[in-house]
Amino acid sequence: MIRHPKFLLLPLLAAPLFLAGCAATTIARIKADPSRYQSKNVAVRGTVVNSVGVLSTGGYEVDDGTGRIYVISNRGVPSSGTRVTVEGRVFSGATILGQAMGVAIRESKHKVH
Known about the structure:
By secondary structure, this protein is of the alpha+beta class. It is about 25% helix and about 50% strand. It has helices at about 5-20, 25-30, 35, and strands spanning about 40-55, 55-65, 70-75, 85-95, 100-110.
């Protein structure tokens, strides 16, 4: 089978478009206009400042220097002080441990740095 060079370049050209969808946004932007991000996937980078977890389920608060946001996870909860990149879907009306928290992120994945 002979491959044309055009087809070999396609993955290289598509990579920036894929990576652009994963660009991190600031927590301040999300909180300033939550309706813009409602039910949309976002990525934020910051430091975990609070965390509560039991059996790989729980929540944690991330601070990126522009603000703080709660993250709901069923994939494990990183400890306080850990630098993370979180990807997930923004939602409003979050209640954590009986406290209304407003805007939060339902995590699809996180990466510890």
